[in-house]
Amino acid sequence: MTLATVLRRDLLLALRQRADVFNTLLFFLVVVTMVPLGVGPELETLRRIAPGVIWVAALLAAILSLNRLFANDYADGTLEQMLLTGEPLPLIVMAKCLAHWLVTGLPITLMAWLLGVMFSLPADAIGILMVSLLLGTPALSLIGAVGAALTLGLRGGGVLITLLVLPLYVPVLIFGAGGVEAVAGGLSAQGHLLVLGALSLGATVLAPWAIAAALRISME
Amino acid sequence: MLEAIDLECQRGDRLLFSGLSFRAEAGTCLHVAGANGAGKTSLQRILCGLLLPAAGEVRWRGASIRKLREDYWHELAYVGHLNGVKDDLSAEENVFFAAGLAGRARTREQARAALAQVGLAGFEDLAARKLSQGQKRRVALARLYLAQDAPLWILDEPFTALDVRGVANLAQRIGDHLGRGGVVVLTTHQDVPVPGRVRKLDLGAPPCGLEPLPDDGAAGAGEGGA
After folding, report:
1. To which H or E segment does residue B16 belong?
2. Which chain A positions have a beta carbon within 8 Å of B101's beta carbon?
3. Which positions in chain B touch A76 (Cβ < 8 Å)?
4. Is B218 part of a structural domain of the chain?
């Protein structure tokens, strides 16, 4: 019930603030398309680095979108109201992360198909790339939200959140990009994907509690 | 119902108040008064449970609010000095989602009725960013018309930005709430036009426990603290 209300509210807000959402996705697209310009057009090189590049760009795009998660609610006082409801805060936070994933992680996953074609990845590698993003991006939203909650209301929070969250993204990056490379090398990506799924599931269970606690501290 | 025991509040290295104790029984309006920076907002945030007091505790129906948590917040309606109104949502959506968020699911019609009661009939579908400051305040206060099941209202400067009719309307609403056995804690610099039992808690005067400031004396009392 609360989950549905918060989800509807956040998606409606994302719809009204379309520009913010598009900026993140455009950033993702631009970063990835910059790489061939810098590295050079050799197809073999591009094909080899494509998974890593796309994953790194996805991490950066996720970081860029994190300040949208709580900062607006904090500034206009809605966050206070969320902390003072009879509903469990971790549930509210979970709904916010789900909404965040639906407008960043999911579109990034879909756009990866286009970028995979652009880097002339083989079809099975593109498939694994998308599956790995689908499994890994929820962890990006959830872990990032912990950082966003901790740095709420701090001066220079934007830089701090990057320093705080990027190291925590490392396992997701390694197993995400690693899975695609494994398939390109003729191996199975199953192990990588299972670890990614485990990371996201673990984050789903633990992160909401951490975010809720961090928000209460930030609001003091 | 609401009880504060030996509360102490420190912001930075400034002691705002200490040894503050009071009880507010059903049907009482507690008017928190005091100079700017005396700790009125801090006291309200402590009573809400947003801020931890340096010492002491707040009790609701005899139990500490730190233990009650969600059970306490379910009985609380808080309008802070930030409106909690989303600029990108319409007035009606704001009231509707705020009620849903507070765990008081209401229909769109009830949200519109609440807006009509704060004098915003006809503005329901207008984006909140297009409303004036006073109208936004009214959108925030419309929450109170949907919070009949919350016996405790904590209102920070509820009368700011409201016009004369708005003030009278809200005072009437608060009076009704007191008549039903509710408890209201509010801060305001105006005279409280609320009908019913109003008790004043002056943070600026020694009897209620505000100690003289430790070092720089009265000079600091005028600066913002909360």
Report:
1. strand B14-24
2. 2, 5-6, 9, 78, 81-82, 85, 87, 92
3. 82-87
4. no
Please name the member of A76, A78, A86 whose beta carbon is closest to the beta carbon of B74.
A86
Residue owning tokens 């192990």:
A191
Looking at residues A17-37, what average pLDDT do you find? Answer: 93
Domain region containing A212: 2-219
Chain B positions in Cβ-Cβ contact with residue A77 (cut-off 8 Å): 80-85
Q: Does pLDDT of A137 surpass 90?
A: yes
B104 and B198 fall within a common domain: no
pLDDT tens readout for residues A56-80: 999 999 999 998 899 999 999 999 9
What residues in B contact A13, CB-CB < 8 Å?
Answer: 86, 88-89
Could A81 and B87 be called an inter-chain contact, meaning their C-beta atoms sit closer than 8 Å? no
* Number of domains, chain B: 2
pTM to 2 decimal places:
0.89
Where residue B55 sits, what CATH number does that domain have? Answer: 3.40.50.300
ipTM for this prediction: 0.86
- Among B150, B174, B194, which residue terminates a domain? B150
Helices (H), A17-122: 18-39, 43-76, 78-83, 89-103, 105-118
CB contact set of A29 (below 8 Å; sequence gap of 6+): A111, A115
State the pLDDT at residue B1.
87
Q: What is the span of the domain harbouring residue B99?
A: 87-150
Judge whether residue B184 has pLDDT over 50. yes
CB-based contact, B121 to chain A, within 8 Å? no
With beta carbons less than 8 A apart as the criterion, state whether A106 and A137 touch.
yes
Q: In total, how many domains does chain A have? A: 1
R_g of chain B, CA atoms, integer Å: 18
Residues B69-82 have a mean pLDDT of 91
